[in-house]
Amino acid sequence: MHLYTSRIYKNKTRFKLGHPRFKSRWERRIAKELECKRVNYRYEKIRFSLPSGRTYKPDFILPDIKVDGRRIILEPHNPKYGFGHIMEFLEQYSNLYFLVIIIRNDDIPENRLILEILENKGWGTIWPFEYIDTLIDILRRDPNNLKGNNYNVKHQRTRIVDDFIKVANVKNTYVFI
């Protein structure tokens, strides 16, 4: 039996790993990393009502890992869809949840303003999808290192990208520090 299966639901492909069905390959990869590293998660289990009348359903909630007493949400996100609903959620629930928005490394410079808002208000951070395994290692060791003012994480992000550039000889790779 294959670990991954895909099924068609109302013209949408959903990927299955273990029990839940995932809407994207990014979500499936994050779930695989969490499961491999034995991190407990809940996938799209809670729907939050927002003041605008919209709802927000976080992708991954990590119930056993906390930053300053707040549960961690991992949100793989394509910036082209905007951050309005995420920021609205954080304005209301940032006292309960710490958000890690996961985007492609190449999209980070264009979204630096969102990163600064998240980190300055202590609401969360942005992490490059390409280094999801490193993020999960940090979450397992000491999740308080994710806070934006932590020098060690900023240094580690820089080192990771520098190593990546050396090995892959890639140009236009960005790091947020």
SSE order and pairing:
Blueprint: E1 4-9, E2 12-17, E3 21-22, H1 25-36, E4 42-43, E5 48-49, E6 55-56, E7 60-67, E8 70-76, H2 84-93, E9 97-103, H3 112-121, E10 124-128, H4 132-141, H5 151-168
Parallel strand pairs: 8-9, 9-10
Antiparallel strand pairs: 1-2, 2-3, 4-7, 5-6, 7-8
How much is the average pLDDT? Answer: 75
CA-CA gap between termini? 43 Å
Instruction: Determine the structural class based on helices, strands and strand pairing.
Output: alpha+beta
Main beta sheet = 5 strands, mixed
Taken from the alpha-carbon principal axes, the silhouette is globular
Number of helices: 5
What is the radius of gyration? 16 Å
* Uncertain parts: 1-17, 164-177
Give, in order, the helices and strands: EEEHEEEEEHEHEHH
Concise summary:
With 177 residues, the protein is an alpha+beta fold.
Give a structural overview.
- The structure is a single chain.
- Helix content is 34%, strand content 27%.
- By secondary structure, it is α+β, with helices and mostly antiparallel strands.
- It has one domain (36-168).
- Strand 7 and strand 8 (70-76) form a beta hairpin.
What attributes characterize this protein structure?
177 residues; alpha+beta; five-stranded mixed beta sheet; 5 helices; 34% helix; globular; disordered N terminus
